[in-house]
Each structure stands twice: as structure tokens, then as C-alpha cells.
């Protein structure tokens, strides 16, 4: 099967108009006998039309094939010197040189100005040696006007166009980077909102699910009343947290008073709440705060530590076997360590359903602060109160500002 021939580029319509106008003006000059020279090798009147027609063809190709147009135009200009000459042929040649620089390849755009400069100098020197009078300088000036000046003009125009194109590309890249930053900021904000929503509400909803299950499964009025009391307390607290979060989202663009941020100062209350929620499941909660006195922790570190402990306690309420759940805090060598251990054993199923987003949220919080997180079953030492040889341990290490540690 024969390969298809490559289609020839179609001339630009502006080039066709330029070529037609140049040819029409040339024919007008020719009809009135307006020539550029006197007697030449080809003195016939029609001979001047041949270079004019060739130059017209070069004008047609000035944009789609600038190298070919320059070659054809150069031959036509040289041929015009052997006829009576036509001013339109000379003027169209200057446009062909200009187009060769503007629309040609980068290498051609660099070579044409240097080549025309050499031609101008060579022509001036040659005629100066031959004639030895000032007319040679006039011929050199005319040669420069017909070749060097259009080439330099085309080089200036091309440089301006390339600078404008580079500026446009930089603007597009800046807009693209801005859009990427905006998209990443939206994703990061959505992830932060998801973590906050999960950490604030999941604990209350887990307690509600656990105690509602107990109230439905036990036929004891006292236990049912106690479970309903816990359910009401957690539902009210969860609703308050939801309202606070919705208020923050709605008023994010307004000037409002800063809302209280969760910190380790409220960890006692969190453990006490978990103790009340997990008592019916045989869970005991202990807080072991071994931090030494020192400068205050950065707010992001306190918030992350609080949320990690909160999520670990929520998971213990859902999955831990009866026994002791211990929350331990320690700070040393520029690191805040948060460790939560709970009894690990075989259970028929969780006390409350989970989404699996808790560990993901903890890892994201730790990663944002450049820390590390370990979560999994480990061997217990048997005397830690866990009541089992295996415990589930969540341990997070959050870097603290080293300068603060050094000043302590």
C-alpha cells in the first residue's frame, strides 16, 4: 500500500493578498515604463516581468516556507538586475528578507542578519575598489537598506514576539501553579475538617452506640436508666461540638472571637468521660502524666496529642477486652510521647461500628508535625494492669521545638 504524500502547507491569506498587491503594482509600473535601470543584458520589455513573477511566488511562500521564499527571492532580485528592473520586485524582496527572519527557524533567524551584513560590506568594498569613488558608498547603503535593514527589523520583531510568548507562558504556568495550590489547599482543608469532625463526634457517638446496646440487651430498669443518662449526656455534648464546628465553618470569613482549642489540660476530663462510658464494659481508665515542668507546648502539638488520645480511647471503648486502659504522657529530648495501651483479646465483634478513619486521621496528624506513630498488638509484661499478656498499643512521638527544650 503506497504511503500518502505529505500535503503541502497552504499559503496564508494575508500572504496571498500581499503577493497580489505587489504583482499588481509591478505590472502598473511596467505598463507605464517605470524602470529602475537603463540598458541591461535582457533589454526586452517583457523580461522585467519574469523576476516580478518569481518574486510574487516568493511572497506567497513567505510564511509557510520562508527559507524557500528567501532563496527564490534572492535569485529573482539578481535576475532583475539583468533586465530593465522593476521597483515592485525590489520592495517585495525586502519583505521576503523580513519574513525569513520573523517566520524562519531560530537558526535561520540568527544567520540571515549576519549574512546580509556580510553581503552589504562585501558589496561596498567591491565597488569601492572597482570604481574608487563615493558612488560605491551609495551602492553599499542601498544594498544595506534592501537586505540588512529588513533583516534587523525582523530580528527585533521576532525577539519582541518571543518575549511576549515567554511572558504568556509564565503567566499560564503561574495560573496553573496557583490553581494547583488552591486545589491542594481545598483537599488539605477537607482532610482537616474530616479529622476534626471524626475526633470530636466519634467518641460521643461510640458511647451512645455502646450504651444503647446495653439498654436494649439488659432487662434492668436501673441499668437502662443509667445507660439512657449516658446517652443523653453524650448526645448533648456531641450536638454542642457539631454546632461549634458548623459555626466555625460559617463564620470563617468574619471577624469572630477565637474558639477554644482542645489541649492536654482537658485530658483529665476526657479520661473521666471514657471511664464513665466504659464502666459497663469492664474497662478501667488510668491517666499517667509523667511530663516534667517546662515551657508550654506549641498549640498544634497539644491539639494533635489530645486528638490522638481521644481517638485511642474511642477505639478502646469499641474493641478492648475488659481490663485497664492506660494513657501515658512523657516529654524528653524535644519529643512528646503519647502512649495508650488497652487489653487485647478475642472478641465476637466491636461494641460499636467504626469507619476505619481513626488510624488514618492519627497518622495524618502525626505526619503534619513530622512525628511517628505506631499502632498494633504487642506483648504485655503481665503486671501493668492490662490483665493480658498482649495489649493493643498506640504510641505517637511528636517533635517539640528544640529551642524550648534547651531553654527549660
Write the layout of secondary structure elements.
Blueprint: H1 13-31, H2 49-60, H3 66-80, H4 87-103, H5 106-131, H6 135-217, H7 221-250, H8 267-278, E1 283-289, H9 299-319, E2 323-332, E3 335-343, H10 357-368, E4 372-379, E5 390-399, H11 402-407
Parallel strand pairs: 1-2
Antiparallel strand pairs: 2-3, 3-5, 4-5
Helix pairs in contact: 1-2, 1-4, 2-3, 2-4, 3-4, 4-5, 4-6, 5-6, 6-7, 6-9, 6-10, 8-9, 9-10
Brief account:
This protein is of the alpha+beta class and 408 residues long. Helices cover 62% and strands 11% of the residues.
Notes on the structure:
The chain is an alpha+beta fold and 408 residues long. It has two domains: 13-174, no CATH class; 262-408, Heat Shock Protein 90 (2-Layer Sandwich), CATH 3.30.565.10. 62% of the residues lie in helices and 11% in strands. The chain is built from eleven helices and five strands, in the order H-H-H-H-H-H-H-H-E-H-E-E-H-E-E-H. It has helices at 13-31, 49-60, 66-80, 87-103, 106-131, 135-217, 221-250, 267-278, 299-319, 357-368, 402-407, and strands spanning 283-289, 323-332, 335-343, 372-379, 390-399. A five-stranded mixed β-sheet has the order 1-2-3-5-4, covered by helices on one side. Helix 2 packs antiparallel against helix 3 (66-80). Residues 254-259, 382-388 and 404-408 have low confidence and may be disordered.
Q: Which structural traits does this protein have?
A:
disordered C terminus; 408 residues; 11 helices; alpha+beta; Heat Shock Protein 90; 2 domains
Q: Can you tell me the number of structural domains?
A: 2
Helix/strand structural class: alpha+beta
Largest sheet: 5 strands, mixed
Q: Which oligomeric form is depicted? A: single chain
Question: What characteristic shape results from the CA principal axes?
Answer: rod-shaped
Amino acid at each position: 500500500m503506497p504511503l500518502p504524500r505529505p500535503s503541502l502547507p497552504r499559503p496564508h491569506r494575508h500572504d496571498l493578498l500581499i503577493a497580489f498587491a505587489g504583482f499588481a503594482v509591478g505590472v502598473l509600473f511596467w505598463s507605464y515604463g517605470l524602470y529602475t535601470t537603463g540598458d541591461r543584458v535582457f533589454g526586452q520589455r517583457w523580461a522585467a516581468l519574469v523576476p516580478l513573477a518569481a518574486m510574487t511566488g516568493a511572497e506567497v511562500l513567505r510564511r509557510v516556507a520562508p527559507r524557500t521564499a528567501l532563496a527564490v527571492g534572492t535569485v529573482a532580485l539578481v535576475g532583475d538586475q539583468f533586465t530593465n528592473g522593476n521597483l515592485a520586485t525590489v520592495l517585495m524582496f525586502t519583505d521576503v528578507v523580513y519574513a525569513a527572519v520573523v517566520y524562519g527557524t531560530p537558526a535561520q533567524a540568527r544567520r540571515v542578519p549576519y549574512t546580509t551584513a556580510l553581503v552589504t560590506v562585501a558589496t561596498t568594498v567591491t565597488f569601492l575598489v572597482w570604481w574608487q569613488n563615493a558612488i560605491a558608498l551609495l551602492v553599499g547603503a542601498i544594498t544595506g537598506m534592501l537586505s540588512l535593514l529588513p533583516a534587523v527589523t525582523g530580528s527585533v520583531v521576532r525577539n519582541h514576539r518571543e518575549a511576549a510568548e515567554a511572558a504568556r507562558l509564565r503567566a499560564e504556568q503561574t495560573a496553573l501553579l496557583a490553581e494547583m495550590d488552591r486545589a491542594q489547599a481545598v483537599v488539605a482543608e477537607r482532610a482537616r475538617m474530616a479529622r476534626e469532625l471524626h475526633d470530636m463526634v466519634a467518641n460521643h457517638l461510640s458511647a451512645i452506640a455502646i450504651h444503647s446496646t446495653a439498654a436494649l440487651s439488659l432487662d434492668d430498669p436501673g441499668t437502662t436508666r443509667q445507660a439512657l443518662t449516658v446517652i443523653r449526656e453524650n448526645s448533648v455534648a456531641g450536638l454542642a461540638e457539631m454546632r461549634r464546628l458548623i459555626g466555625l465553618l460559617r463564620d470563617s470569613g468574619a471577624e469572630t472571637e477565637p474558639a477554644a482549642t482542645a489541649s492536654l489540660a482537658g485530658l483529665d476530663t476526657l479520661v473521666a468521660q471514657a471511664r464513665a462510658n466504659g464502666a459497663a464494659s469492664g474497662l478501667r481508665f488510668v491517666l499517667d502524666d509523667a511530663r516534667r515542668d517546662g515551657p508550654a507546648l506549641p498549640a498544634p502539638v497539644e491539639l494533635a496529642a489530645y486528638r490522638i488520645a481521644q481517638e485511642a480511647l474511642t477505639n478502646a471503648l469499641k474493641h478492648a477486652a475488659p481490663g485497664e486502659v492506660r494513657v501515658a504522657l512523657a516529654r524528653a529530648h524535644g519529643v512528646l510521647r503519647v502512649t495508650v495501651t488497652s487489653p487485647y483479646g478475642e472478641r465476637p465483634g466491636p461494641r460499636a461500628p467504626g469507619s476505619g478513619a481513626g488510624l488514618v486521621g492519627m497518622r495524618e496528624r502525626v505526619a503534619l508535625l513530622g512525628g511517628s506513630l505506631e499502632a498494633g498488638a504487642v506483648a504485655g509484661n503481665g503486671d501493668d494492669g492490662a490483665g493480658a499478656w498482649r495489649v493493643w498499643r498506640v504510641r505517637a512521638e511528636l517533635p517539640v521545638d528544640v529551642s524550648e527544650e534547651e531553654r527549660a
